[in-house]
Specification:
The chain is about 45% helix and about 15% strand. The chain is an alpha/beta fold. It has 2 domains: about 200 residues, Aldehyde Dehydrogenase, Chain A, domain 1, CATH 3.40.605; about 60 residues, no CATH class. This is Aldehyde dehydrogenase.
């Protein structure tokens, strides 16, 4: 725990340094990260696709010759194959392996590259113009979320749909040709730019089934915060590769990768320097962190206080919100 404490304090000490870096400096860091992602992309994919939970007794004889069939038959009979992937024929296994390889590439190297590209576009625009990139489209909306045709004649609409993505054919295809829009209210309120947000020290509990460090990128470049990333015990194999990709940030103590069990995770979240936390996992895990039990307490008076009272962002069981239109 002493190493964890020392590491968190080193990162926390760099919080204001990171927040004070100019957009131009962060743009330079992003370019370096993109170069390193390209250099280590194959390593990240190989770590991502590394087989887990596959039965040990799996036939590797993909295409035996007829003459070898009889010789191999006695050996095959001695092998005990478990239900599932091990019982699939060779051709189907190859198809599954190819599909698995593509899917792992999509949610590791490719998704990381897409996020870096989107973030880079923001900082490139700020460096060039002092402003974020303009939206792709803006259309007025009437009260609620009804279409603009329902607005009162001659009255300026107070709400607008602002399309912010996706950009490019690849990104659009990945989102199944959907649209990313914000419903914005017209008011004198101003929101700070991303690179001007108040910095935090973010603790991240990494996903067990996902390999792209989206939470790291969001923490650093969207939240303007330094972070400590603890890899999941179920998915520790990509952390060393990610540490190489993010080495420019690790070397300056803007980012730290750690491993460990539940006790390490608990110590990280409750560390006095940590001001915010992210997690990807089950709602039961989140409840244990907040309440100490897999289910939340009953609503009583006085209102129960959580064990960990810090702001957090959690993706629980991939319960990602979607608005489906039309809703019939």
């Amino acid at each position: 725990m002493e190493d964890l404490d020392r590491g968190v304090r080193l990162v926390a000490a760099q919080k204001d340094v990171w927040a004070s870096l100019s957009p131009k400096e962060k743009l330079s860091i992003i370019d370096e990260l993109m170069d390193r992602l390209q250099a280590f992309s194959s390593d990240l994919h190989e770590a991502s696709i590394e087989k887990r939970d596959e039965p040990a007794a799996v036939l590797t004889d993909d295409s035996p010759s007829p003459a070898a069939d009889l010789a191999a038959d006695s050996t095959k009979k001695k092998e005990t194959l478990e239900d599932g992937f091990a019982c699939v024929d060779a051709k189907t296994r190859r198809m599954i392996a190819t599909a698995s390889g593509v899917s792992h590439w999509m949610h590791s190297s490719m998704l990381t590259g897409i996020w870096l590209s989107v973030i880079r576009e923001y900082f490139e625009s700020v460096v060039a113009t002092g402003k974020p990139p303009p939206p792709f489209a803006v259309r007025p909306a009437a009260a609620g979320t009804e279409c603009a045709q329902d607005a009162e004649p001659g009255k300026r609409p107070s709400r607008h749909f602002v399309k912010v993505g996706p950009k490019g054919l690849l990104f659009t295809t990945l989102l199944t040709f959907g649209s990313m829009e914000l419903l914005v209210e017209e008011s004198p309120t101003e929101q700070e730019l991303v690179h001007e947000r108040t910095a935090n020290v973010v603790a991240i509990l990494g996903a067990g089934n996902f390999d792209a460090p989206i939470d790291v990128l969001a923490s650093l470049f969207v939240e303007n915060s330094v972070c400590v990333y603890k890899s999941s015990p179920f998915n520790p194999r990509v952390a060393p590769v990610l540490a190489e990709i993010f080495k420019p940030l690790v070397d300056r103590n803007f980012l730290l990768f750690v491993e460990g069990d539940v006790k390490q995770g608990e110590a990280l979240l409750h560390h006095e320097c940590v001001t915010k936390w992210y997690m990807t996992g089950s709602i039961h895990t989140a409840n244990r962190i907040l309440w100490g039990t897999p289910t939340p307490p009953e609503k009583t008076e006085p209102v129960p206080k959580p064990l960990l009272n810090k702001p957090f962002t959690a993706e629980l069981g991939s319960c990602t919100p979607w608005i489906v239109c039309p809703g019939n």
